[in-house]
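Lecture notes, part 5. Sequence design as translation. It can be helpful to think of inverse folding as translation between two languages: the language of shapes and the language of residues. The source text, in C-alpha cells, appears below.
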C-alpha cells in the first residue's frame, strides 16, 4: 500500500525513504496527533520486522550484556507513558533564504503523541549499567543496509536517567512501521533526531560515538548522524567541529558557548504556531479567535504574544486547555476585533528562561552561530528555525 494511502493526513515529500509532514496546521489542533497525521522522517527505507524475532542488545559499560526480546521489554519491566510534542530539527527549513540543504519541510514536521514503553533506566538498573554523570548512552537503529551509515545518536546519561523510554506504543497502539515498529527511543522534549527508530542496540559509553572505532565499525560509519548531521553549521565553516563529549546539553546554551562553535541539536527551542484562522483565510466576523500551540523543549512556555500587524505591536494571549505534562504543547487563544482589511498574524512564545522567538532568519554572510539581534542563524542544513515571521499567516477581513 502506498504511503499516501496509509497516511492520508500527510503531505509526502519523499516516499523512498519515507519523509512526510502533516498536511495542515489544523491537524495539530487536537490534543493528540493521530498517527496518520504525525510526521515521518527516515534516512533509509523502512524495514519489515517481525517483533517476535526482534531483540535490543544492551552492551558497553554494564555488568551483564544481554539481548532483550520484545516480550521481555513489555512484560519484565515497568511501563510508563509520556506526552511529547516531537519536532523534526529540519522543520521550517523551507523558510531559509538562500535554500538550505535537505528536504524542504514547511511547518508540518511535528506531532504530539502519547508514547508508552519501558524506562531505559530500569533496564540499566537490572543489568548493572553504569549511570554516572558524564557517561553517554548510544542508541543504534537497525534499518541501515550493510553498505550505509547506521543511524546512531548518543544521549547524555543524565537525560537517560531522567525520562527516556524504549517505546513500543504510540497513542495506545503498537508503533506503525514508519514510526519505528517494534521499538524506538523516545527522548522527551528533544528534537526528533534523538528518538532513534528500530532500536537494535543501546550501549553505555564514556563518550559519544566519536573517533576511528566508530567511523569504521563493522565497515560502517556510526558517527555521521551525531557528529556531522544535526549540527548548526554556518556558511563559513567547512564542517562541524567534532567532540568526544560535551558538558552542555541545552541547544540554546551550546549556541552561546564558544567551546561549541557548531551546536548539537538536542533539546527543542521555544516555538509557536497559529492554528486558526487558516493562512489566506477570508474572515467575515467582527470578533475572531486566534488559536494555536506553543512548546519549548525542556522549558515551560511562560508567555504567548500575538501580533496582527506583522510584528509591529504585540498583545498577550491566554493559555487554555488541560495540562498534559511538561513535554506537551501549550494551547493559547487571543480574541481579536478587527476592522476590514488585510492582516499579517504572528505568534511569539517566550520560555521560562526568558528566551523569545526571534523575528527572522539571518543572511549567511552575517556568519551567526547563535540567535543575535532578533535573528536565527542561517545554517547549511536549515536546522532549528524558530523565527516567528517564518510562520506568520495572512488573512483578509471582509466588510
Amino acid at each position: 500500500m502506498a504511503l499516501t494511502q496509509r497516511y492520508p493526513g500527510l503531505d509526502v515529500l519523499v516516499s523512498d525513504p519515507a519523509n512526510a509532514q502533516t498536511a495542515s496546521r489544523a491537524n495539530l489542533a487536537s490534543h493528540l496527533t493521530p498517527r496518520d497525521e504525525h510526521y515521518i522522517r527516515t534516512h533509509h527505507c523502512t524495514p519489515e520486522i517481525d517483533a517476535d524475532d526482534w531483540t535490543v542488545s544492551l552492551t558497553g559499560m554494564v555488568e551483564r550484556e544481554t539481548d532483550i526480546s520484545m516480550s521481555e521489554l513489555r512484560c519484565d519491566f515497568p511501563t510508563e507513558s509520556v506526552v511529547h510534542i516531537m519536532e523534526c530539527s529540519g522543520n521550517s527549513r523551507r523558510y531559509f533564504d538562500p535554500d538550505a540543504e535537505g528536504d524542504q519541510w514547511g511547518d508540518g514536521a511535528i506531532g504530539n503523541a502519547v508514547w508508552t514503553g519501558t524506562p531505559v533506566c530500569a533496564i540499566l538498573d537490572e543489568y548493572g549499567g553504569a549511570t554516572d554523570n558524564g557517561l553517554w548512552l548510544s542508541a543504534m537503529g537497525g534499518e541501515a543496509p550493510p553498505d550505509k551509515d547506521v543511524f546512531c545518536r548518543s544521549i547524555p546519561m543524565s537525560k537517560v536517567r531522567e525520562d527516556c523510554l524504549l517505546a513500543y506504543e504510540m497513542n495506545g497502539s503498537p508503533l506503525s512501521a514508519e514510526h519505528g515498529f517494534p521499538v524506538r527511543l523516545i527522548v522527551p522534549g528533544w528534537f526528533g533526531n534523538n528518538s532513534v527508530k528500530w532500536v537494535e542496540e543501546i550501549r553505555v559509553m564514556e563518550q559519544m560515538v566519536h573517533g576511528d572505532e566508530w567511523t569504521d565499525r563493522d565497515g560502517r560509519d556510526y558517527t555521521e548522524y551525531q557528529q556531522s548531521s544535526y549540527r548548526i553549521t554556518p556558511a563559513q565553516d567547512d564542517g562541524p567541529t567534532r567532540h568526544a563529549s560535551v558538558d552542555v546539553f541545552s541547544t540554546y546554551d551550546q549556541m552561546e558557548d564558544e567551546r561549541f562553535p557548531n551546536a548539537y541539536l538536542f533539546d527543542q527551542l521555544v516555538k509557536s504556531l497559529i492554528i486558526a484562522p487558516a493562512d489566506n483565510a477570508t474572515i467575515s466576523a467582527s470578533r475572531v479567535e486566534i488559536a494555536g500551540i506553543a512548546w519549548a523543549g525542556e522549558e515551560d512556555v511562560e508567555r504567548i504574544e500575538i501580533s496582527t500587524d506583522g510584528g509591529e505591536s504585540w498583545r498577550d494571549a491566554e493559555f487554555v486547555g488541560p495540562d498534559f505534562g511538561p513535554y506537551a504543547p501549550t494551547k493559547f487563544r487571543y480574541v481579536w476585533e478587527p476592522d476590514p482589511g488585510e492582516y499579517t498574524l504572528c505568534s511569539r512564545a517566550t520560555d521560562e528562561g526568558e528566551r523569545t522567538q526571534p523575528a527572522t532568519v539571518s543572511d549567511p554572510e552575517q556568519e551567526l552561530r547563535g540567535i543575535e539581534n532578533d535573528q536565527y542563524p542561517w545554517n547549511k542544513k536549515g536546522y532549528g528555525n524558530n523565527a516567528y515571521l517564518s510562520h506568520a499567516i495572512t488573512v483578509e477581513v471582509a466588510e
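The translated text above is only one of many valid answers, since several sequences can fold into similar shapes. DSSP finds seven helices and 24 strands in the chain.
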